[in-house]
Amino acid sequence: MGGHSQLASVCSSLIILVVIIWLAPLFKTLPTLCLASIIIVALKNMIFQVKDFFKLMKINRYEAITWLMTFFGTVVLDVDVGLFVGVGTSILVVVIRDMFSPIRPMVKYKNTSSYVEDELVYSEANDQEETSFKNPNFQSNICIYKIKHSIYFANCHAFQDHLYNTYGFRPEKKSLIDKKNSINNITSLANDMDQKRCCYQDIILDFSSVNYVDTNGMQVLRQIIDDYKSFDIHVFICAAQDSFIKLLVKMNIWHKYESHLFVTIEEAICFSNQKNSPKKFF
After folding, report:
1. What does R_g of the chain's alpha carbons equal in angstroms?
2. Residue 76: HSE in the Cβ half-sphere, 13 Å Cα cutoff
3. Which residues of 93-122 are buried (b: 16+ CB within 10 A; e: fewer)?
4. DSSP three-state, residue 136
């Protein structure tokens, strides 16, 4: 009757017990349709929750897909099966979101020390001049990217492809070695490397939103850093979590990649500017 105390719960439990033990046999002769109608009336609130699906479609399609799969699994199959379907769909959705999560370029917000996504600057600027929202002294020789998802076995290679596509250059280390072994092409190799170093900038990855990196993800990060380094393009990681540092130590690669880690983006930019003095490849 609207009570929320423990005594009210005890009374409700006693009433349900009486109905199940003594009153349930009285409903034995009722037609199945009548029993079904009683169940439908009792579950009408759950049925009306179908409207939530259309709201979720407008807000978040991934959550709407999870809701739909759980609903059909419960109604068509069974309650237990529906729960397993919902849990499985939720895990699958998380993996898919991490695999196709975009890598956003970042710019420095004017008159501040904060870096924001370039897309947010566009949306906030609206009809105003874009330069009024960006710092005019921003370093254009460095590409800064925001990583918003964990990097693990299921999405590490997708992350590598997304980074290469966003940056616009795929380091081909094997072809580089093949060309370097050829004496006839040694001049063209030097020219190609000089041209690529002039066209492409160092990379800074903001790991402040990366909660977890496993050993497979770490191997991919090592490959990215080493491959770009062969073209004298440096990859720096900023604001990494403690778990990331501990994994480097456990894998005995901390001393090799210590120079690629920084606390803030500003420190990485200063370090990159110091290293960007003219270099000779041969």
Report:
1. 29
2. 7
3. bbeeebbebebbebbbbeeeeebbbeeebe
4. coil
Provide the CB-side half-sphere exposure for 217 (13 A, CA): 20
236: β partners:
204
Characterize 139-157 residue by residue with b for buried, 16 or more Cβ atoms within 10 angstroms of its Cβ, and e for exposed. beebbbbbbebbbbebbbe
* Model confidence pLDDT, tens digit, residues 176-192: 555 555 544 544 544 55
Classify residue 252 as left (phi > 0), alpha (psi -120 to 50) or beta: left
Residue 235 above 70 pLDDT? yes
One-character DSSP codes across 158-220: HHHHHHHHHHT----HHHHHHHHH-GGGHHHHHHHHHHHHHH--EEEEE-TT---B-HHHHHH
Tokens of residue 262, six digits: 């920084």
> What is the Cα–Cα distance from 210 to 208, expressed in whole angstroms?
6
Do residues 106 and 118 make contact, with C-beta atoms less than 8 angstroms apart? yes
pLDDT digits (tens, 9 = 90+) for 6-22: 777 788 888 878 877 88
Q: Is the full-model pTM beyond 0.90? A: no
What pLDDT does 193 receive?
Answer: 47
CA 14 from centroid of its chain's CA atoms: 50
Determine the length of the chain: 282
